[in-house]
Amino acid sequence: MARPSPSSRLAKRAAALATTALAISARGAAAAKAGSYEVVNTNSLASAMMLGLMDEQNVFILDKAENNSQRLADGRPVWGSFFDLSDNSVTGVSVTTNTFCASGATLGNGTWVVAGGNQAVGYGGAALLPNVSPDAGPYTDYDGTRAIRLLEPGSKTWIDSPSTSTAQVNMLQSARWYPGIEVLEDGSVLFIGGAVGGGYINRNTPNLDPFYQGGGSNPTYEYFPSKGNQTVSQFMGNTSGLNMYPHTYLMPSGKIFMQANFSTVLWDHVNNNETYLPDMPGRVIRVYPASAAVAMLPLTPQNKYTPTILFCGGSVMSDTLWGNYGGPGGDILGITASTDCSSITPEDSQGNQNTAAQYVKEEDLPQGRTMGQFIHLPDGTMVILNGAEKGTAGYTNATYNSAQYNGQAINTEGLAQDPTYVPVLYDPSKPQGKRLSNAGFGASTIARLYHSSAVLLPDGSVMVAGSNPHQDVTLNMPTGTTPQAFNTTYEIEKWYPPYWGQPKPSPQGMPTSIQYGGSPFNITVDGSFMGSSANAKAANTKFAIIRPGFSTHAMNMGQRAVYLDYTYTVNDDASVTYMVNPLPNTKAMNRLVVPGPALFFVTVAGVPSNGKMIMVGTSATGTGNVPFTPTLGSALVSLPAAVNSTKYTATITRAGDSSSSFGLGKIIGIAVAGAAVLALIAIGICLWRRKGKNSRGEKAAARQSAAPWTSRDVGSGPEYKRVDTPVGSVNGGRFGGRRMDSSNTFESYRMHDQGSVIESKEALGGYYDHPRSGSRGGYAQSPLGYEPQGRGSSQGGYQQGWAEHHDGDAGAYYEEGNRYGGQSYDDYPPRSYQQQYHQQQQQYPQQYQQQGGQYHDRQGSGGYGRAR
Ligand SMILES: [Cu+2]
């Protein structure tokens, strides 16, 4: 028998080694992703202000109506798209109304609802004038202030008709921009508060009309499907100013825990009674635009499903600096955001108020953070990502957020600086005060500031997208200025939690629905996965129901995580049979985790399975109608003791039990990943080059260009120029019976193409570049060309700068008399406005009240229904 030659043996050995190296490298590269970000698509088409997981494969993306370069077949820009998780592709979709700063949730029947928004706008976010039909506007977007948009399960068509349409049957009773939202135990939804038009915060200064702000604020709440006329919330008046997107959590008692300004209340929304809880320590503001990361901690059998709400970050500023609709009261760009993490447990699991409830200081974030957002992970931890260390959410037009570039003044618009690129993990299984860590986490390279978003995906990663601190699409901000400028952002990233890259369990018997009460169900994980440490792994398993929520403005509205009790038997073949109890059969649990869709994960030794979309509180096919009364099944049985094997007694060697630290695999992964990353970069460059002339390629080119400034037209049409930064000059409002519209806008800028600059614009202090079309029909004149109007003048007053809102109302002074005299702004004490409150209720205009109150969709009766 001929022996192989030495060289041949060497070649074989080399080949074997190479194969092994490749295998290790592949595993290592996957593991190396743990704790890091990866761009999975460079163009979300619509910048992702809002996200919602539709099913196991699709995520909807919503933006405000703006000049995204992607066009629909009818020529309109997209402000909505769908992200397909199977191939990371994105498709634009028609949205009719302006979704700008809406709120959203899944109803108990699984239908997505996205409600509220802002007016029809044109270039630069300027509101269309009343005499201009939305069809004639450049974006053909319709008023969304009262819109209720629906997305049915399995559908990729938004049901969205204009608020002004008589055919619109899904309408809010009144305009809501930044409303609070909470899904109730019957699967219906409650909306509370919001602004009417817009602004940095929801008040004028001085704050003479805390409830209504002369028509700028909406202090009422209402339901969908309707349960009657909207009613004034005392809390909205008490927290006047800093009360947009209030934090709400339905409690076991049926009351709503609600936090805004520095106040906290347990609110019986049925009887409209409020019980005040302690103020936020240090008066840290947690609502928009301070925008803390806020979440209910995971509900577990160990904590007896007791609700605790955790707040991390936000802002502390003086009352003066908080300013008003027009913007902050001064330069806030250098103000470091709060590091404070505090939590409170308002009730026990059965809905008994914890009368001694106090906010408990847990610990400090490693850096101050505004616009951080909590994402529940299926290993029981929560990650905070996105945001900035300085400033707040929102944008404005003030001297302090302008920068000089090449001798030109540009407005950087955004109110946040110093993006927080490194996530922080919160592990509630650790002792209080030792729960936060960012050890081992890589940094993102993409700023995720105002109007960014994030949501848990079924594969256990976190989708991160958006960021657009501008009134309209802005792709040409220079780098290296002070303050730092940021572009409208389209990249979609995945952030990979520490468990990423480990072999996943593939459980059998995953449920399609989980009820309140009833019999336990069985799930098995095979022996090849459980292996020699089957006993330990079985004991270290978690069954999570996670509702990822509607993501916008650093909030995941409706996000919850609840873990199920279980026992197990380790079988002879190392497989494990789990016996899992459903949710407790209590009304309290029905409220803590309301009916509707959620992801179900099985996490073994810290590594989650893929999440399965299930229904909570109904059958898998759900109920077509809401509201409904979920059935409470039989009481949970006492689970028998676990049965371990005598054979599979090894300990778990790999780190992974919901640990924030990284094991050896991670370190090896990092080492081998270097080459892989280089390869990926090379591939990325090739792909980028291949993209050639499409608009995204151009944007990538702009980003990577040596020149920090692009000379590319930011618009898509030959006529488009970014213009019309609005400043409203407004008084009155919809509540006052006077429609608010932009009566003044001012020219924005485009920092190139100076040949087309019109002299008179240049004289306006650095804003220049008239639209090439030469026509601004339907758009208001620049107020910079006017003498400022004083408050109370015939034209009303306006504030220079406009902050968050752009549809022309922003920067408005909502003025409608001094109903309350000279009280200054603050968090109003609970009782000081009782008298006025009652008067207010009577005064409250009824013109927007809905007639039928119930939405009928093809089923025709029984409240809101959807075709099945
Ligand atoms: Cu917003």
UniProtKB/TrEMBL annotation:
Domain Galactose oxidase-like Early set positions: 505-616
Protein name: DUF1929-domain-containing protein
PANTHER family: LOW QUALITY PROTEIN: ALDEHYDE OXIDASE GLOX-LIKE, SECRETED PROTEIN-RELATED
One Pfam family it belongs to: GO-like_E_set
Domain of life of the source: Eukaryota
Domain Glyoxal oxidase N-terminal: residue ranges: 213-499
Organism ancestry: Eukaryota, Fungi, Dikarya, Basidiomycota, Ustilaginomycotina
